[in-house]
Amino acid sequence: MQVSRRSFLKLSGGAVMAGSMGLSLKPVQAHAASLKTRYAQETTTICPYCGVGCGIIVSTRNGKVINTEGDPDHPINRGSLCSKGGSIAQLSVNKNRLDRPLYRAPFSREWKAVSWDWALDKIARNIKKSRDGKFALKNAKGQTVNRTTAIASIGSAALDNEECFIYQKFLRSLGLVYVEHQARI
After folding, report:
1. Contact criterion met (CB below 8 Å) for 67 and 37
2. With respect to CATH, is domain 41-92 assigned 3.30.479.10?
């Protein structure tokens, strides 16, 4: 490349100007930013959205979720997540999430905030009333059945096998006959 005297002066003047503005041609030293999950507690869990059962790592600090990501050691998803699983942190970290139960009385248009104790008491009383109202000790043939047809249950994919087993045992102990589990409802 041939550089004339005039172009040499232009280039060197430009370099001086760039240097005075803080630009430098020195090699830059890279520094890695610290991870937001550093010093966080990691817990593995299963994605609650569908029946696939993808593994998720939930990182928490001071009892709050700070990050979720696919579990690379999980045999099903090997670290990848779909768009729903990838946004799972929003289940916990969301300003619109309800933090207390709401109750709407029969024929009312208004929801009111109630305490957890009141809500659980109400649920227990309703289950007891429905169960006792339609509980059958024997069927038409005189066989012992100990069941109720007044209550039904629909499960979800948010439960793993062990939780489904315990939930099923609980429902059967109440005498429920109509127990269903469908992950894609």
Report:
1. yes
2. no
